[in-house]
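Q: Given only this backbone (271 positions), what sequence would you predict?
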């Protein structure tokens, strides 16, 4: 998943530190702060696992997966490569990978650590929403409020991630009734150089876009992500994914309690 992985929307925890203005004359900052706080509250209270199809495209692959979430983590099985079913050899190799995971507690713990790391990065980046930008209301159309954001010149980033994220400008759409973020799109407004370009360099014009939808009553999930950042940057000794398009569909509540049950579901549904 790319550096703007928004898989854990509820990790907007620090947004709770932003004072919320509850009035008919809400400004843009208070609206986004309220939405962030609600995302956090929903994540803390809603641990419903789902199963879905995940079509992920990067410069290195074009793969469709079947995904089953469990309390232990998420199990993915390859379904297609470049729009075609896997060959018998590739199917055997991917199933062998899954069986190795099922029989290796160390791999399972690493998978959970990777998920926790993604969550932490999301936490570090997404809590910036209310405080790193200047917000303004663009329009109100029924239940939806569209906000513009642009870098706040008075914001001082305290990390490389924060510096990159805070150089974005764009729009966020918020559901008024649910106080949830429906969509977000942004663009790099300036070139970003870290340590004079030694650690990384991102160019003006790079874009990202995400969609966040109610996939079951009062259950919201990231359904679409597009990241097209021009350049590269090194975070935690890993180069961030800068070109990715991901689409998640066919959401259903997952009954799986562990990896073994997730594998049984994937075998039944995708054979």
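A: Predicted residues:
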């Amino acid at each position: 998943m790319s550096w703007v992985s928004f898989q854990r929307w509820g990790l907007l925890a620090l947004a709770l530190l932003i004072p919320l203005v509850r009035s008919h004359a809400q400004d843009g900052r208070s609206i986004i702060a309220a939405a962030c706080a609600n995302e956090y509250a929903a994540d803390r209270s809603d641990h419903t696992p789902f199963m879905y199809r995940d079509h992920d495209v990067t410069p290195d692959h074009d793969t469709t997966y079947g995904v089953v979430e469990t309390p232990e983590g998420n199990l993915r099985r390859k379904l297609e490569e470049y729009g075609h079913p896997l060959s018998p050899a590739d199917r055997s190799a991917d199933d062998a990978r899954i069986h190795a995971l099922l029989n290796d507690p160390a791999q399972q713990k690493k998978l959970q650590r990777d998920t926790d790391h993604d969550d932490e990065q999301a936490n570090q980046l997404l809590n910036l929403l209310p405080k790193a930008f200047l917000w303004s209301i663009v329009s109100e159309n029924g239940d939806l409020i569209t906000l513009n954001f642009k870098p706040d010149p008075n914001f001082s980033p305290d990390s490389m991630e924060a510096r990159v994220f805070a150089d974005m400008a764009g729009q966020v759409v918020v559901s008024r009734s649910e106080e949830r973020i429906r969509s977000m799109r942004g663009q790099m407004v300036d070139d970003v150089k870290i340590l004079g370009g030694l650690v990384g360099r991102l160019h003006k014009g790079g874009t990202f876009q995400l969609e966040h939808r109610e996939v079951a009553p009062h259950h919201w999930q990231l359904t679409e992500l597009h990241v097209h950042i021009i350049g590269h940057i090194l975070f935690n000794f890993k180069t961030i994914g800068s070109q990715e398009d991901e689409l998640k569909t066919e959401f259903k509540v997952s009954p799986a309690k562990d990896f073994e049950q997730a594998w049984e579901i994937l075998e039944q549904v995708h054979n």
